[in-house]
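Practice record 12: protein with 0WE.
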Amino acid sequence: MLLDLTGKKALVTGIANNRSIAWGIAQQLHAAGAELGVTYLPDDKGKFEKKVRTLVEPLNPTVFTPCNVQDDEQIAAAFKSVEEAWGKFDILIHCLAFAHKDDLTGEFSATSRAGFTTALDISSYSLTALANAAKPLMNEGGAIATLTYLGGVKVIPNYNVMGVAKAALEMSVRYLASELGPAGIRVNGISAGPIRTLASSAVGGILDMIRHVEATAPLRRTVTQAEVGNTATFLCSDLASGITGQIIYVDSGYEIMGM
Ligand code: NAD
Ligand code: 0WE
């Protein structure tokens, strides 16, 4: 069996709680035998750190380190911790996004310069920043995977500036795949259908979107964090050794429908 990640070291970003897509990915990578490292978004009171630490404890992460992707020094420090613990590693999961709530409703044309910059900094540029820091530490045969959404390709009401951010993210996947390919590192994206998480539940109308998917997607249901986790595990395994620069839809087939 090639879908065996025993001996592979995987760094997972974007775990906030037990509903996070990143948590689904971390669990599946662990089940496949990978050794885990986890980064979290630090906050002033350390509440977030404690919550994520307790959640991931059963997966015995070798690395547990803060990383606010808006801060170059935190990125450098996180990868220094990775280097100290592991030397080289194999898998990087990028599973984070943020736009101001006001920018995820109403008119897209009303997006402020600051809101646009924040959304693209956290949700798009961070993949390139992390890939650049990871590059010298990644083994040949390594893989990077990120999470995207259909709203980066088609207009989805209210997704607005996040759609522009996902378009930039998906093109970043292709440029990074082209550049890192000669070093034997693959870069792919997973376009997940709507799932109830901390980020999506804060969005008005997410339940209506989920009902729409349940009514129209070929599989007549939404997808789970575990299904996205399984796809991430496949894409980062040697079974996917010929796949790079791709966006794979894990969306119950919703993307193929015209009506
Ligand atoms: P989530 O809220 O669980 O995860 C978002 C993560 O982003 C959190 O862990 C948060 O701490 C992190 N984050 C935000 N700003 C950060 C910063 N400056 N530095 C570091 N981390 C930061 O929500 P989720 O739905 O699991 O989102 C994960 C990814 O999946 C995102 O890229 C999202 O766009 C994508 N996605 C979600 C859905 C969905 O319906 N939930 C569908 C497709 C794609
Ligand atoms: O990528 C996402 C969620 C991204 C997101 C969500 C929030 C809510 C809370 C980014 N930033 C924030 N900022 C907050 O303050 N998804 C794919 C889920 C999602 O979000 C939508 C969706 C879907 C689906 C927003 C509008 C319309 C549909």
